[in-house]
C-alpha cells in the first residue's frame, strides 16, 4: 500500500551542513567544495536509482545542469556563516509504481518546485538497501534557495522570505506554503498512481486529523541511519521505536483503525491490503503477526466472499472483505434511493412534456421514454446512456418540462468540464459536486421541495460522495436524477454507487449511439460500451484507423503529422488529442504548437507565468482552463481559442455547443487576468479523464500502458467523424498485446454485490453475543436467531409457552435437516424496496472462524467443491455451503446447545454430563421447567395469566422424544457416548 511521506529541512552552515556534500552523497558522485577544498566522494554508494537536475520551464541555464557548478555556486552566493545554502525535500515513492514511473513522479514534483520558485532542483532516487524494507523507495530533492538565471543564481526565492515580508506582500506564510507543498505531493503521487492503473492513494493529512490514534512512522535521515548501523543510540531511532510500541498498543485496543485506513482507499479489499496498511505502522515481525491476527478477528471486519480454491485445494482468489461501516453506508445509500423512488409528488403534467417534445421533433422514441421516466412522480430516477446516445438532448427536453411545471432545475458533475458540458448542452445551470458541497457547508444554495437536482456522469461518483448527495436531496424533499454510464470512467475512490442505485430503482436506457455519423462506428461504440474491446478495435483496424509506430515518441510524431494534415484539409473541424499520461499531453501540446509556429500560424506571442511554469501564447492558440472560476464563468477542462494576447491578460473565445443539426454555435468571449487566474495550459491535447463528456469532429488517441477497457471506451467515442489510435511498439508489441492491455477491466465493486449474490439481508451492526449464544448459533444455524430466551422476571406461563415453541421449532428443524437432499432450498429473494442486510450473516463470529480452518469451510476435495459451487448458485450462505450431511451436529448436540443457551437461566445444570441419554436430557429439561413454575406462583397471580397444563408440556416432550427415538438416532447416540468415554480415558475431555 502506498504511504505518505514528505518532509522538508534546510541545509544550513550553522549546523555544519554543505550543499556540495549533500549533493555528492545523494547523487553518489565525487564533488569538490571549492570554498573549503574538501572533496566528497560517494562513488561507491549503492542504491542510487536515478539522478537528474531540472530547471524552471522557459529558463535557459545550461550551466546549472552541471552538479558541481550548481552547488558550488549555491555555496558561493551565501556570505553569512549561518546562511541556508539549500532546501531538501524527502518523499516516499509508491512501491506499486515501476522504476520508470517512479522517475516520472519524482521529476513531476521536482518540476513543480522549480516552476513555483524559479529554482534549480536536483533530485536523486534511492532504492531500498538490503537492511531495510524492500519497498522503501524514496527520493531526495535538493532545491536552491535562490532563483536560477542564465548568468547564475539571483535573488532569494519567496520560500526563503521571512513571514513579515510575505504578509506585507500579501503572500502566504512559510507554514502555509509548506502545507500547500505537502498537499501538492499528494496530488502528484495520486495522479501517477491513477495513471498507472492502481487503486491505492495517499493522504497528506495527519492520522490525528483523520481521527486515528496510530502514530505514523518516521523516516530516519542518512546520519541517523549510519549511527544506528554502528550501534550508536539515536534519538530518532528511539522515537521510531516508541511510535511502533504505541501503534502495537493502539491496534491491540482498537484494531478497526487499520481497517479505516484501508477503506480510505478501497471499499472491498483482501488480506494483502490489510497487511500493507499494517506494515506502515508496525515493523517487528512478531508484533506484526499478532496485530494482523487481531485486525482479521475484528468485529468490524466482514467477510464478503470466502477464499476460492481449485480442485487441488490451491487458492485461486483471495477472500474479499469490507467493514460494517462501508456496508452500512452503501446499504443506507441504496435504501434511501429506493424510498425516494417509491415516493411521489414530483411529476410533470403530460401537456408540458408533449410541448417539450414538439419543440424537438427529431427526438427518438427511446429519448422520449427517458424524458417521461425522469419527469414521472418518483423523487429519484436514473438514465443509463451509452457514450453519444443523446443524453444531453434528452435532458434539454426534460428541463423544459420541469421548468414549465414550476420546478427549479440544478445540475452537477464530478469534473468541471462535465459540468460545463451539461450546462451548455442542456441549459441546466451546473457546478461541480465539490462546489455544491462547499456551498451547503457554508449555508448557501440549499435545496427545497421545488427543486430538481441532476447529476451528470454519475458513474464517476464514489459511494461516499453519492450517499451524501442522496441524503441531502432526500432531506430537502427535492428530486434527484442520475445520468451516466457505469462502464465509462470509474470512480477514483471507493465504490460503484451509480450502478448499485440503478440496479435497485430501475432506469431508462439510451442504447442508440448518435454521436458518430458512420454506422460501423456506432456499432463499434456499442462494442466498447459493452467492454467488447477486441471487436471495437477490429472495426477501426479494418478501416485503417489503428497506426503502429516503433516507439511511443514516433507515435507522437505521427499524431502531430495527422493533426496538421487534417487541419489543412478542414480548418473548421474541431480536433482533440487524447492520452493517458500528462507527460504525453505536454509533449504533444509543444509539438503541435511548434508545427503551427513554424508555419507562421502563430505570430504575435506573449509569455505568461502559470502555476506550472512559463507558457507562450499567440493569437489562434488552443487554450485549456484547469480550474473552476465563478468570476470568469469557466470550469476545469473547458477549451477555447486565443483571440488576443495583451499585457497581463489573454482573451479567449470558448468552444461553442453543438446544435441538433450539427452546427456549432459561437462561444462567448472570456478575458483571463493571468495575475489572478494562472491555472491554464495549451489545449491541443488533454488527458482522457478530462475528455469524458466532450464531443469533437476528429480525435487522436495515443495508447500507453495503464489504459484499461473503461479508458478505451471513453477515448474511442469522443468523435463525430473519425478517430485514430496511435500505438508505440515499446508499449504494445503487436495488435494482440494492444487488445489484451486495453481489455483489462477495472470495474469498481460495492459491498452490495457480494451481499446480494449470497441472498444476505443487511440490518445493522451485529450485537455482541456470549460464548453460549455463539455455540448455539453454530449448532442450530439460522434457527438460533429466532429463539427468544425467557427472562427470569417473565410469568411462568409465558416462559412455558416460549419453551414449548422452541421445542417445536427444534423438531421442525430436525425434519428439514433429515429431508431428502434432492429437494433444493429455494434461492432467497432480495427485496429491492428494502435494502436491509443482516450483518451477522455476512461472517461467522471470530471464535467460529478460529475453530473452523479454511479446509473445513471450502475443502480441498474436488467433489465437495462441486457441491459448494452448486449451493452457492442457489444463494446459500458461506458456512452452510461448506457443510456436508455427515458434518451436521446431532440432535443431542443441538438440544444441549439449547439448554446451554439458558432456557432456565436460574437453573444450574449439575446433571449435564456427557453420559446422559436423550431421555434423561429431556427429563432434566422437563424438571427444570416444572421447578421454575413452582417458584413463581405469585407472578402468575399478579399478571392474571394461567399456566400451561403440566400434561401439555409432558405430551410435547413425549412427542419430541418419540420422533427422535429411532434406531438411527439411538445408534448415533451410543457411538457418540462411546467416543466421549474414549476421550475421557485419554484425558482429553473436560466436564
Task: Give the SSE layout.
Layout (H helix, E strand, L loop, with lengths): L5 E7 L6 H9 L2 E3 L6 E3 L6 E7 L12 H11 L6 E9 L6 H19 L3 E6 L11 E6 L2 E3 L4 E4 L6 H6 L5 H22 L26 H8 L5 H19 L2 H8 L7 H9 L5 H12 L4 E5 L2 E2 L5 E3 L2 E4 H19 L7 H9 L6 H10 L5 E6 L5 H15 L2 E6 L2 H11 L3 E3 H9 L9 E5 L7 H14 L2 E6 L12 H9 L2 E3 L8 H11 L3 H10 L3 E4 L2 H18 L5 E5 L2 H17 L6 E6 L2 E6 L3 E4 L13 E8 L2 E6 L14 E5 L6 E3 L2 E3 H4 L4 E7 L6 H7 L3 E10 L6 H9 L7 H7 L4 E3 L6 H10 L15 H22 L19 E2 H4 L3 H6 L2 H4 L4 H12 L4 H5 L8 H11 L16 H18 L1 H7 L6 H15 L2 H19 L6
Parallel strand pairs: 14-18, 14-19, 15-16, 15-17, 17-18, 20-31, 21-29, 21-30, 30-31, 32-33
Antiparallel strand pairs: 1-5, 2-3, 4-6, 5-7, 6-7, 8-9, 10-13, 11-12, 22-23, 24-25, 24-28, 25-26, 26-27
Helix pairs in contact: 3-5, 8-9, 9-10, 11-17, 11-18, 12-14, 13-14, 19-20, 21-22, 27-34, 28-37, 35-37
Unreliable spans:
130-134, 207-213, 217-239, 488-495, 658-665, 763-780, 783-800, 820-888, 901-915, 938-954, 986-991
Report the helical percentage: 40-55%
End-to-end Cα distance, whole Å, is 48 Å
Give the number of helices: 38
Count of extended strands: 33
Radius of gyration of CA atoms, rounded to a whole number: 35 Å
What is CATH's topology name of the largest domain?
Rossmann fold
In round numbers, the mean pLDDT is 73
Please list the strands of the largest sheet in the order they lie side by side. Answer: 16-15-17-18-14-19
In the CATH hierarchy, what is the architecture of the largest domain at level 2?
Answer: 3-Layer(aba) Sandwich
How many strands, what sense, and barrel or not for the largest sheet?
A: 6 strands, parallel
CATH class wording of the largest domain: Alpha Beta
Strand fraction equals: 15-25%
Shape: globular
When the domains are counted, the total is: 5
Structural class: alpha/beta
Amino acid at each position: 500500500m502506498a504511504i505518505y511521506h514528505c518532509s522538508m529541512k534546510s541545509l544550513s552552515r550553522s549546523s555544519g551542513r554543505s550543499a556540495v556534500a549533500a549533493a555528492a552523497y545523494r547523487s553518489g558522485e565525487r564533488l569538490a567544495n571549492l570554498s573549503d577544498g574538501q572533496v566528497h566522494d560517494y562513488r561507491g554508494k549503492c542504491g542510487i536509482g536515478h539522478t537528474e537536475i531540472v530547471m524552471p520551464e522557459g529558463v535557459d541555464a545550461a550551466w546549472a545542469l552541471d552538479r558541481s557548478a550548481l552547488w558550488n555556486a549555491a555555496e558561493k552566493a551565501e556570505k553569512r556563516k549561518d546562511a541556508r545554502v539549500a532546501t531538501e525535500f524527502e518523499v516516499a515513492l509508491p512501491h506499486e509504481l515501476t522504476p520508470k514511473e517512479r522517475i516520472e513522479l519524482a521529476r513531476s514534483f521536482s518540476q513543480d518546485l522549480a516552476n513555483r520558485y524559479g529554482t534549480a532542483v536536483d533530485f536523486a532516487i534511492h532504492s531500498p538497501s538490503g537492511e531495510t524494507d524492500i519497498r522503501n523507495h524514496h527520493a531526495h530533492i535538493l532545491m536552491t534557495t535562490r532563483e536560477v538565471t542564465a548568468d547564475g543564481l539571483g535573488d532569494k526565492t519567496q520560500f526563503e522570505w521571512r513571514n513579515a515580508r510575505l504578509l506585507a506582500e500579501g503572500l502566504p506564510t512559510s507554514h502555509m506554503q509548506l502545507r500547500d507543498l505537502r498537499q501538492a505531493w499528494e496530488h502528484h503521487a495520486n495522479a501517477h498512481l491513477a495513471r498507472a492503473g492502481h487503486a491505492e492513494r495517499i493522504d497528506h493529512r495527519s492520522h490525528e486529523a483523520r481521527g486515528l490514534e496510530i502514530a505514523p512512522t518516521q523516516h530516519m535521515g542518512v546520519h541517523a541511519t549510519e549511527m544506528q548501523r554502528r550501534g550508536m543510540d539515536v534519538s530518532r531511532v528511539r522515537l521510531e521505536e516508541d511510535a511502533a510500541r504505541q501503534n502495537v498498543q493502539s491496534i491491540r485496543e482498537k484494531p478497526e483503525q487499520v481497517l479505516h485506513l484501508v477503506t480510505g482507499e478501497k471499499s472491498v479489499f483482501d488480506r494483502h491490503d490489510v497487511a500493507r496498511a499494517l506494515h506502515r505502522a508496525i515493523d517487528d515481525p512478531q508484533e506484526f503477526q499478532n496485530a494482523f491476527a487481531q485486525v482479521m478477528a475484528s468485529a468490524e471486519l466482514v467477510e464478503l466472499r470466502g477464499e476460492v480454491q481449485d480442485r487441488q485445494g490451491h487458492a485461486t482468489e483471495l477472500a474479499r472483505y469490507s467493514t460494517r461501516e462501508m456496508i452500512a453506508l452503501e446499504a443506507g445509500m441504496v435504501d434511501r434511493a429506493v424510498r425516494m423512488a417509491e415516493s411521489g409528488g414530483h411529476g410533470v403534467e403530460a401537456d408540458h412534456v408533449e410541448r417539450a417534445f414538439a419543440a424537438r421533433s427529431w427526438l427518438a422514441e427511446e429519448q422520449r421514454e427517458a424524458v417521461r421516466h425522469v419527469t414521472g412522480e418518483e423523487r429519484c430516477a436514473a438514465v443509463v446512456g451509452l457514450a453519444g446516445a443523446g443524453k444531453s438532448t434528452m435532458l434539454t427536453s426534460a428541463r423544459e418540462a420541469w421548468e414549465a411545471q414550476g420546478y427549479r432545475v440544478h445540475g452537477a458533475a464530478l469534473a468541471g468540464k462535465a459540468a460545463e458540458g451539461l450546462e451548455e448542452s442542456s441549459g441546466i445551470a451546473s457546478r461541480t459536486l465539490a462546489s455544491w458541497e462547499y456551498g451547503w457547508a457554508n449555508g448557501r444554495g440549499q435545496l427545497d421541495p421545488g427543486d430538481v437536482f441532476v447529476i451528470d456522469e454519475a458513474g464517476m461518483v464514489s459511494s461516499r460522495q453519492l450517499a451524501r448527495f442522496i441524503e441531502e436531496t432526500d432531506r430537502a424533499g427535492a428530486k434527484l436524477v442520475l445520468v451516466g454510464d457505469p462502464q465509462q470512467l470509474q470512480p477514483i475512490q471507493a465504490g460503484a454507487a451509480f450502478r448499485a442505485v440503478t440496479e435497485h430503482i430501475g432506469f431508462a436506457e439510451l442504447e442508440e449511439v448518435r454521436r458518430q455519423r458512420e454506422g460501423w462506428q456506432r456499432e463499434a461504440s456499442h462494442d466498447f460500451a459493452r467492454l467488447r474491446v477486441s471487436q471495437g478495435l477490429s472495426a477501426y483496424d479494418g478501416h485503417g484507423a489503428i497506426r503502429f509506430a516503433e516507439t511511443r515518441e514516433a507515435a507522437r510524431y505521427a499524431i502531430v503529422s495527422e493533426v496538421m494534415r487534417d487541419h489543412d484539409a478542414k480548418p473548421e473541424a474541431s480536433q482533440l488529442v487524447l492520452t493517458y499520461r500528462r507527460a504525453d499531453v505536454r509533449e504533444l501540446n509543444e509539438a503541435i504548437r511548434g508545427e503551427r509556429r513554424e508555419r507562421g500560424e502563430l505570430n504575435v506571442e506573449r509569455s505568461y507565468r502559470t502555476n506550472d511554469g512559463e507558457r507562450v501564447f499567440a493569437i489562434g492558440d488552443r487554450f485549456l482552463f484547469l480550474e473552476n472560476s465563478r468570476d470568469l464563468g469557466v470550469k476545469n477542462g473547458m477549451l477555447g481559442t486565443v483571440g488576443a494576447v495583451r499585457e497581463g491578460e489573454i482573451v479567449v473565445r470558448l468552444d461553442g455547443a453543438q446544435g441538433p443539426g450539427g452546427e456549432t454555435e459561437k462561444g462567448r468571449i472570456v478575458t483571463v487576468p493571468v495575475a489572478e487566474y494562472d491555472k491554464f495550459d495549451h489545449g491541443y491535447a488533454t488527458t482522457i479523464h478530462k475528455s469524458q463528456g466532450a464531443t469533437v469532429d476528429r480525435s487522436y488517441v495515443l495508447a500507453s500502458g495503464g489504459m484499461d477497457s473503461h479508458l478505451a471506451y471513453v477515448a474511442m467515442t469522443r468523435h463525430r467523424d473519425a478517430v485514430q489510435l496511435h500505438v508505440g511498439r515499446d508499449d504494445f508489441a503487436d495488435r494482440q498485446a494492444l487488445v489484451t492491455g486495453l481489455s483489462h477491466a477495472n470495474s469498481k465493486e460495492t459491498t452490495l454485490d457480494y451481499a446480494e449474490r449470497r441472498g444476505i439481508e443487511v440490518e445493522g451492526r451485529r450485537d455482541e453475543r456470549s460464548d453460549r449464544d455463539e455455540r448455539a448459533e453454530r449448532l442450530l444455524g439460522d434457527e438460533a436467531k429466532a429463539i427468544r430466551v425467557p427472562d427470569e422476571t417473565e410469568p411462568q406461563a409465558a416462559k412455558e409457552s416460549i419453551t414449548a415453541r422452541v421445542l417445536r421449532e427444534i423438531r421442525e428443524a430436525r425434519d428439514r435437516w433429515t429431508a431428502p437432499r434432492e429437494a433444493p432450498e429455494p434461492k432467497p429473494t432480495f427485496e429491492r424496496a428494502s435494502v436491509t442486510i443482516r450483518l451477522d450473516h455476512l461472517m461467522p463470529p471470530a471464535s467460529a472462524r478460529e475453530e473452523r480452518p479454511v479446509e473445513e469451510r471450502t475443502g480441498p476435495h474436488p467433489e465437495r467443491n462441486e457441491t459448494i459451487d452448486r449451493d452457492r448458485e442457489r444463494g446459500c450462505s458461506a458456512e452452510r455451503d461448506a457443510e456436508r450431511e455427515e458434518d451436521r451436529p446431532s440432535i443431542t448436540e443441538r438440544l444441549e446447545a439449547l439448554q446451554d443457551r439458558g432456557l432456565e437461566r436460574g437453573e444450574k445444570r449439575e446433571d449435564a454430563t456427557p453420559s446422559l441419554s436423550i431421555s434423561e436430557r429431556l427429563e432434566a429439561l422437563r424438571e427444570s421447567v416444572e421447578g421454575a413454575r413452582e417458584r413463581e406462583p405469585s407472578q402468575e397471580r399478579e399478571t392474571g395469566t394461567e399456566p400451561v397444563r403440566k400434561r401439555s408440556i409432558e405430551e410435547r416432550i413425549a412427542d419430541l422424544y418419540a420422533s427422535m427415538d429411532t434406531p438411527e438416532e439411538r445408534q448415533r447416540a451410543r457411538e457418540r457416548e462411546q467416543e466421549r468415554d474414549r476421550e475421557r480415558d485419554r484425558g482429553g475431555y473436560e466436564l
